[in-house]
Design a protein that fits this description.
Helix content is about 80%, strand content about 0%. The chain is built from 5 helices and no strands. The termini are far apart.
């Protein structure tokens, strides 16, 4: 989706998510929702202009700043970092176990 209006909405919606992988995943999902909603509007109302489609799509998605606040509460960075540490710790434990069994 190359539309500047949609990109600005997405930037606002995800700017509070500090953990990069979460921010990218949420942005991709929201972009998919924007695309789906715009496609639905074009299918249902074929006479809509591109500008009207953008306006209705964004109006239906809601306020990006408010959505961003809620997303930032859910996507805490320490959860992501904890997940990464636990992944590396399990790999290290598996290697140590393999070395002790040899």
């Amino acid at each position: 989706m190359d539309d500047h209006t949609f990109q600005a909405w997405l930037d606002t919606a995800v700017k509070g998510i500090r953990f990069g992988p979460d921010r990218r995943a949420v942005r991709a999902e929201l972009a998919g929702h924007l695309e789906d909603r715009a496609a639905d509007l074009r299918r249902i109302f074929p006479d809509l202009t591109d500008e009207e489609t953008r306006e209705r799509t964004l109006a239906g998605m809601g306020n990006a700043a408010e959505i961003g606040k809620q997303l930032a509460r859910v996507h805490r960075p320490w959860l992501g970092y904890l997940w990464r540490v636990s992944r590396w710790a399990s790999v290290a434990a598996a290697v140590l176990l393999a070395l002790t069994l040899l």
